[in-house]
Amino acid sequence: MRAPVLIILTGLTLGAAACATVETPIAPAPDVVSSGAPVPVADHDWFYHRDGSEARLVYGLAESDDLRLGLDCSQGSGRLALSAVGGPDAKPEIYIEAGGETERFAARSEPSELHEGVFLTAEAAANAPVFQRFRRIGWLALWLDGERQAYAPQPESVPNIERFFAFCG
């Protein structure tokens, strides 16, 4: 009697397996695959500079006037001065993102002396959620004129981000 029970169970198992659908995952096109984090751009980086009780963290091209985004603070102040360059029709705001966390900071807009467009300045709390996220993930994106520009550090510069925020308080 054991054999018929075993045959019935085997038949049920095989029947259930035959009814199950198995989907083969479709691999995305190579240009769609993303780790979610931007990659560093050659010759551009986050540069940290400390001068007494003042510090600056700037993303741009080394030893040039190519400033993309600047963060300045006084030691322990908990406040940041933000600066960026926008196009001639840029909104008077600095709109930043870090890993999905976003924030818009109302900015003062003045004609840029070095670039076509405007120079934007704003103030922010150093502990705003977007900056806390920046500290954790190591990159920040700036939205200007409807375009997202992501700024990732070169590997050796990653510690500068935390140094800056620890200094600012």
Briefly, what is this?
The chain has 169 residues and is α+β, with helices and mostly antiparallel strands. It has helices at 2-19, 129-137, 158-168; strands at residues 44-51, 54-61, 67-74, 79-86, 93-98, 101-106, 108-111, 118-125, 140-144, 147-151. The chain has a six-stranded antiparallel sheet, covered by helices on one side.
Write up this protein:
- The chain has helices spanning 2-19, 129-137, 158-168, and strands at residues 44-51, 54-61, 67-74, 79-86, 93-98, 101-106, 108-111, 118-125, 140-144, 147-151.
- It is built from three helices and ten strands; from the N terminus they run H-E-E-E-E-E-E-E-E-H-E-E-H.
- It is globular and about 35 Å long.
- 24% of the residues are buried.
- Helix content is 22%, strand content 39%.
- It is of the alpha+beta class and 169 residues long.
- The strands form two sheets. Strands 1-2-3-4-8-7 form a six-stranded antiparallel beta sheet, with helices on one face. A four-stranded antiparallel beta sheet has the order 6-5-9-10.
